[in-house]
Amino acid sequence: MSDAPSTNPPGAPNPAGSPAAESADPPLYQPPSSPTPTPPSAPAPTVEAVNTAPVSTAVAGFSARIGETLDPTPHSPEPAGDLTAAGEKRHNLRIFAVANQKGGVGKTTTTVNLGSCFAELGLRTLIIDLDPQANASTGLGINPRSIESSMYDVLLHDTPLEDCIEATAVKNLFCAPASLDLAGAEIELVPAFNRERRLKAAIEAVSEDYDYVLIDCPPSLGLLTVNGLTAATEVLVPIQCEYYALEGLGQLLRNVDLVKKNLNPTLDLSTIVLVMFDARTKLASQVAKEVRDHFGPVVCRQVIPRSVRLSEAPSFGQPINVFDPTSRGALAYRDLAKEVSGVDG
Q1: Is residue 25 in a domain?
Q2: What is the pLDDT of residue 72?
Q3: Cα–Cα distance, 243 to 23 (Å, whole number)
């Protein structure tokens, strides 16, 4: 069987001058003309078909599904205040909600390492861990079982955020850790007063102390993520350079749009980061091109490569620029921090 399907019956060549003979070769995949869904008995596409089909075909309908959900706003880096004047009030606080409801796409890795590289540039940075798994906390060397208060207490018991914040081994980098109790916060927040704005109120109390706040949202679209989006000024979306990472992105953008219309009018999708980029595969380059074609300047120029050292660093409780400062991952996140912040190190 040839890779390209034929529109004629087997063994019947196209007659000369026929429309089929004069038209261009058909695409590797042609969506059905009828709107009727594919019956369950239809065979799934083979691995070979996925690998040989162009990504523009494999993600057909991607732009149509998400194109009208939200107008992305290109990130415009602004240095966060004077970095040398001791004691001077800091300005231009930027609050990023790092969100993507799909798990395993590099949210926590990006939050921890980008925050650490911000701190390395002299920017006071606070990482807020809203994920009950507490991976951002452990990735910074904080044991969630040994802390006195966590983000659960801030959201449910009105504990001041400054009482929850822990210093890290990295200068200028601080963390408001999560705990396993956050797993029940989704339910406990339902009857709470002003439930969507609790994190926003907590951050406002410490807003003068930091240049950047990075909120590590859980891989869901529940009340914890809504709190993160309501408190943020910008949304940062890490996208894995694989086709499945695009699935569900439209729903995330629709939720961002809903939060913007009803809870946080200043919220903008300002930054998309391509992560786990494997230059050895054609698929990664094609997915990156598809995302750049759709979102334009919102997508950062710097991509984050797939790296074993990035995977090893959390087990030592260190960000990549501390664990292995000369690795490809460390260099990539440093360049990303400079691009997003507009600060030259």
Answers
A1: no
A2: 53
A3: 30
Confidence category of residue 215, pLDDT binned at 50, 70, 90: very high
- CA–CA distance, 299 with 231 (Å, rounded to integer): 22
User: Has residue 242 been placed in a domain?
Assistant: yes
pLDDT digits (tens, 9 = 90+) for 148-192: 999 999 999 999 999 999 999 999 999 999 998 898 888 998 888
Average pLDDT rounded to a whole number, residues 233-243: 91
Q: What is the CATH number of the domain that holds 242?
A: 3.40.50.300
* Any domain includes 345: no
Tell me which residue range forms the domain holding 223.
69-80+89-340
Question: Mind spelling out the 3-state secondary structure of the chain?
Answer: CCCCCCCCCCCCCCCCCCHHHHCCCCCCCCCCCCCCCCCCCCCCCCHHHHHHCCHHHHCCCHHHHHCCCCCCCCCCCCCCCCCCCCCCCCCCCEEEEECCCCCCCCHHHHHHHHHHHHHHCCCCEEEEECCCCCHHHHHCCCCHHHCCCCHHHHHHCCCCHHHHCEECCCCCEEEECCCHHHHHHHHHCCCCCCHHHHHHHHHHCCHHHCCEEEEECCCCCCHHHHHHHHHCCEEEEEEECCHHHHCCHHHHHHHHHHHHHHCCCCCEEEEEEEECECCCCHHHHHHHHHHHHHHHHHECCCCCECCHHHHHHHHHCCCHHHHCCCCHHHHHHHHHHHHHHCCCC
**Domain total for the chain?**
1
**What band does 345 get if pLDDT is binned at 50, 70 and 90?**
low
Q: What per-residue confidence (pLDDT) applies to 267?
A: 95
Question: Does residue 37 sit within a domain?
Answer: no
Residue 312 burial (10 A CB sphere; 0-12, 13-18, 19+): middle
Supply the pLDDT for residue 74: 52
Average pLDDT, rounded, for the chain: 80
Among the ranges given (45-49, 66-70, 142-146, 181-185), the one the predictor scored with the smallest mean pLDDT: 45-49
